[in-house]
Specification:
163 residues, Alpha-D-Glucose-1,6-Bisphosphate, Chain A, domain 4, 4 helices, 7 strands, 37% strand
Length: 163
């Protein structure tokens, strides 16, 4: 590493998008967990590395492996403030991503989730990888998660109402 290289030499992008979820923050927050995401994201796949509770918590570490994202990613739960905020740091050899998800009640039965992602390249290859990322793809991804989460919560509510 060249110590004379400026700290801002790598490519960095920031994306954000909001979701409208038909539930209270206390119903949504537990689902923002690597283990609970199996319940509502059909193609979710991860490997838990460390968690004392078996769920998301401060310091929880898990991994995902998606070639399109640069291969094996290690995730760390960096903030865990139920039911209002969760943060993740996600890294692989190409780039580091900081995710922040804020949950804000809009009414008794609606919550706005603001997703922010800051992606920073770590290498020259990472610069190329990060530079080709598009905000539109991020927005589509968050919109897909919004639909999946609302569908899951609606189905869960229907089951509770039927009991």
């Amino acid at each position: 590493m060249n110590r004379l290289e400026p700290a801002t030499a790598r490519v960095r992008l920031r994306f954000s998008h909001c979701q409208r979820i038909e539930a209270a923050p206390s119903d949504i927050f537990p689902l923002l967990c690597p283990v609970r995401e199996y319940d509502w994201i059909p193609d979710w796949d991860c490997r838990m590395v460390y968690s004392t509770s078996g769920l998301a918590e401060p310091g929880c570490i898990f991994q995902t492996d998606r070639p399109a994202d640069g291969g094996l990613d290690t995730w760390l739960v960096s903030r865990h403030e139920p039911p209002s905020h969760i943060g993740f740091v996600r890294m692989n050899p190409l780039r580091a991503i900081q995710y922040d998800i804020d949950l804000t009640p809009a009414s008794e039965s609606v919550t706005v989730l603001r997703w922010e992602q800051v992606i920073t390249a770590l290498t020259a290859a990472g610069d190329s990888h990060v530079a080709q990322l598009e905000e539109a793809a991020f927005v589509r991804s968050i919109a897909r998660l919004e639909a999946l989460l609302n569908r899951y919560l609606e189905a869960a509510s229907a089951v509770e109402t039927a009991d």
